[in-house]
Amino acid sequence: MNVRRSAAALAAIAVVGAAAAPAVAASPSPSPSVAKPSGLFGSGDPTYDGVWRQSLALLAQHTVGVEPAAKAVDWLTGQQCANGAFAAFRADPAKACDAKVMVDTNSTAAAVQALAALGGHDAQTGKAVTWLKSVQNKDGGWGYTPGGASDANSTSVVVGALTAAGEKPDAVRKDGKSPSDALLKLALPCADGGAFAFQPDKAGKLAANADATAAAVLGALGKGLVAEPAPKAAAPTCSDGARTPAQAAANGAAYLAQAVRKDGHLTSAMPGATDQPDYGNTADAVVALAAQGGAEQARQPLAWLEKNASGWARQSGPAAYAQLIFAAHATGTDPRNFGGQDLVAQLNATGPAPQSKATAQQDGQKDEKKDEKKDDDSPFGVWWFVGVCLVAGVGIGFLMSGRRKGQQL
Question: How many angstroms separate the CA atoms of 220 and 278, rounded?
């Protein structure tokens, strides 16, 4: 669930039916094929990951108490289609989405998590969640694109979106199946390490996948990209007993703990390429381990990231910085002194300058004045409206539904 899982790579998976997620990050394109919008984070071509990286960047800023630039938030909301879905990137958001716009669950779910955390975007998140529910598969899960076979990563990021929007994920069902049902079908027994598979292969067999496991541990716990450490520290153990989401999460965490035990990091293995450290998956594993068993369970891979991940983040861009911030948050580590690096400053430098507290307060005051002006412009006036409400008596009231969601890519 990170920058190496670009929309292009996942779209290719959906087309060819591959059974495993991509394993290494692609560096940002040195020569973007489209003009970079001023409100967008990162300097690379946004064609395949614009909404994803923007969402992670805004969510990471919110997590560390930074007020994102208004134009950065506006860029993200402007990417939404009328039906509520998001594509990876729309070069011309003024143009209505049509059948040629490839919307996807991952971009949509990431945007929901960011906008729900920021607050004040109930209309956008509500439409997005409605769309996500409409494309749920009969097994209870989600694929990357509508109608695609369910996979652990997509199902888990949607679970995070549902939670962020105030939904109970397991109450969101299709043909009686919940997201947990879909994830449990992708869980391997302890004889195979207790990991999760990305998808079954063509023969229906499951293969352990670290990327899918890190995502699915959070999905099984009902958590999103930003997660708090479990309140009680406990080393994860694998058990083939009760097939519950909680036990599946523990099994997956046990797999991740074993995978990082030797070198402190996960390893990517691509055909024809030398095995190398997988920074993004390792950051995701830190969040999963801390969320399932407490911060202490993630100390080893966290220490490895603090020592080794700065170069990767510089090359990979805002989503990578966001992932490291999420790892720091999940373990109670200071992201402004992460192995001697200030992740917050480095993330901020990849996009529009964030608002100062004074600017944010001024913007809020301007919005309040606009609302007051609208009331004053009413042909009857606000006090006439109040009077009518008082006369109406018992049984008439106001429904205030201000969701300001945040929890914790």
Answer: 23
**What six digits make up the tokens of 252?**
């997956």
Nearest to 406 by CA among 225, 237, 186, 277: 225
Which one-letter amino acid corresponds to residue 347? L
Contacts of 349 (CB under 8 A, 6+ apart): none
Amino acid symbol at 309: A
Rounded Cα distance between 9 and 106, Å, is 12
pLDDT of 32 reads 53
**104 in helix, strand or coil?**
strand
Q: What confidence tens digit (pLDDT) does each residue in 326-347 have?
A: 999 999 999 999 999 999 999 9
State the Cα–Cα distance between residues 56 and 327, nearest whole angstrom: 13
**What phi and psi, each to the nearest 5 degrees, are found at residue 41?**
-80, 145
pLDDT level of residue 242 (50, 70, 90 thresholds): confident
In the prediction, which pLDDT does 322 show? 98
Distance, CA of 297 to CA of 4 (rounded, Å): 24
Q: Which residue from 49, 181, 51, 42 is spatially nearest to 108, judged by alpha carbons?
A: 51
Asked if residue 12 has pLDDT above 50, the reply is: no
Res 105 pLDDT > 80? yes
Name the nearest CA neighbour of 304 among 329, 325, 278, 322: 278
pLDDT value for 33: 60
Q: Which distant-in-sequence residues (6+ apart) come within 8 Å of 42 by Cβ?
A: 28, 53, 57, 317, 318, 319, 350, 351
Q: Looking at residue 8, what is its pLDDT?
A: 43
Residue 296 pLDDT greater than 80, yes or no:
yes
Tracing tokens 């971009």 back to the chain, one arrives at 107
E strands, 20-72, are none
As a whole number of angstroms, the distance between CA 367 and CA 288 comes to: 39
Residue 259: both structure tokens together: 């995978």
Does position 287 have pLDDT exceeding 80, yes or no?
yes
Handedness of CA 224, 229, 234, 235 (dihedral sign): positive
In order of 262, 373, 386, 387, the CA distances from 377 in angstroms are 68, 6, 15, 17
- Distance of alpha carbon 212 from the chain centroid: 14
- Using only C-alpha atoms, the chain has a radius of gyration, in whole angstroms, of 22
